[in-house]
Write a structure and sequence with these properties.
GO molecular function: hydrolase activity
Strand order of the largest sheet: 1-5-6-7-8-10-9
CATH class: Alpha Beta
Order of helices and strands: HEEHEHEHEEHHHHEHEEEHEEHH
Helix content: 25-40%
Shape: globular
InterPro entries: Calcineurin-like_PHP (IPR004843), Metallo-depent_PP-like (IPR029052), Pantetheine_PDE (IPR052963)
Low-confidence stretches: 2-19, 28-43
Distance between the termini: 23 Å
Protein name: Calcineurin-like phosphoesterase domain-containing protein
Domain Calcineurin-like phosphoesterase: 57-148
Pfam family, one: Metallophos
Mean pLDDT: 87
Length: 375
């Protein structure tokens, strides 16, 4: 997450994305290339299956580890060093702001899991710590990816025991939010509320204020297009994962939020287009996308694709959750050829499975109204 304050019910929303809109944009994906250099593109690496017990391949997912918090680092260290030796884990961003903590965290995970996959989150690219002098956040990104290569952490699409796993780089853009704004209350500006505007450093031409960062990070995925096509042709089951949110309706409406502008700094339309170009416009029962960033457990199917978030989040957030986090994370999304049953409880996705979304309603939820009446 990116907020200076995120009270207990915060999250976000949007109208379902039109499938015709997606079709047109998938056809135009090549339009979004930037100056990223393309190297030689190999066929997808097939990771060998070591001897396993009757359970078969298991894939666990986790996001928003934030191990700069000592309590979260202790949680990572507490993961069994024996139980997951033959398993895969997908880390959907926001590991740590401090480079040393990032390396330690990924090393601990690599010691515990056979295969570790990673995509960067916004906190990972902050450049504000003394003693960590980066030209910009892209230089830090390269340093993190270099560390992953040394540690054996995967950041590219691969096949593990017949399952396609595709990391997707992304960043948010303000125009992702297309819902009616909340008015009548004093809401902090994005620049004041979102630390990314100050903690990230970008070269000329890249900015949080437009779509440039979203396009830049999406274009990183272009270098793996041939690999992705091979995976599509050989794998009947595919898991994609990102840090940022691909659809605004994966979070509640603005009136439910303590910070109603949050939808402007969480997601990317280009990410959803990328996901649909992999899983298909209509999706399928074997299509799953894992994301992070908002720190809310989520498990829902939208237009044929299952979207899952299983965050560790901040210690204070876990203390007030119904389902905590320490005892059931990381979440096993895939086991022995089958996707896991629905993650539950997930407060907001459970709520929307029983109640229609009403994003046109801008009347503040009672807990939000009380919060602003007190400020």
């Amino acid at each position: 997450m990116v907020m200076r304050f995120i009270p207990s019910y915060s999250c976000v929303s949007q109208k379902p994305m039109n499938l015709n809109y997606l079709s047109k944009h998938i056809a135009a994906l090549s339009k979004y290339k930037t100056d990223i250099k393309r190297g030689f593109i190999e066929r997808p690496q097939i990771l060998p299956l070591t001897s396993r017990d009757a359970v078969g391949l298991r894939v666990f997912v986790l996001s928003d580890l934030h191990t700069d918090y000592a309590e979260n680092m202790r949680w990572v260290k507490s993961i069994s060093t024996v139980r997951h030796k033959k398993d895969v884990i997908l880390i959907a961003g926001d590991v740590a702001e401090i480079y040393g903590n990032f390396v330690l965290t990924m090393s601990l995970l690599k010691d515990r899991f056979e295969h570790v996959f990673y995509v960067p989150g916004n906190h990972d690219l902050w450049c504000r710590r003394e003693g960590e002098d980066y030209v910009d956040s892209l230089q830090k990104l390269n340093k993190l990816l270099d560390a992953c290569r040394v540690l054996g952490v995967e950041t590219n699409p691969m096949v593990v025991d017949g399952l396609g796993i595709i990391p997707l780089f992304s960043w948010y853009h303000e125009s992702f939010d297309r819902e009616k704004d909340i008015t009548g209350i004093c809401i902090q500006s994005l620049e004041m509320a979102c630390k990314d505007f100050h903690a990230c450093k970008w070269p000329a031409g890249l900015s949080n204020g437009d779509t440039s960062l979203s396009l830049y990070f999406d274009a990183i995925n272009e270098k793996s297009l041939n690999v992705v096509k091979e995976i599509q042709g050989t794998c009947s089951q595919i898991i994609t994962f990102s840090h940022f949110v691909p659809r605004q309706e994966l979070c509640p409406e603005k009136r439910m939020l303590f910070y109603p502008k949050l939808p402007k700094i969480i997601g990317s339309d280009y990410l959803e287009v990328r996901i649909r170009s992999i899983h298909g416009i209509q999706g399928s029962g074997s299509a799953c996308h894992v994301f992070g960033h908002t720190h809310f457990c989520w498990d829902a199917v939208l237009d044929g694709i299952r979207y899952v978030q299983a965050p560790l989040a901040y210690p204070r957030e876990r203390k007030r959750r119904m389902n905590g986090g320490e005892d059931w994370l990381p979440f096993c999304i895939y086991s022995d050829g089958n996707f896991a049953d629905r993650l539950s409880p997930c407060y907001w996705s459970d709520y929307y499975s029983a109640n229609p979304r009403t994003p046109h309603n801008t009347e503040l939820a009672p807990w939000v109204a009380r919060f602003y009446n007190q400020t």
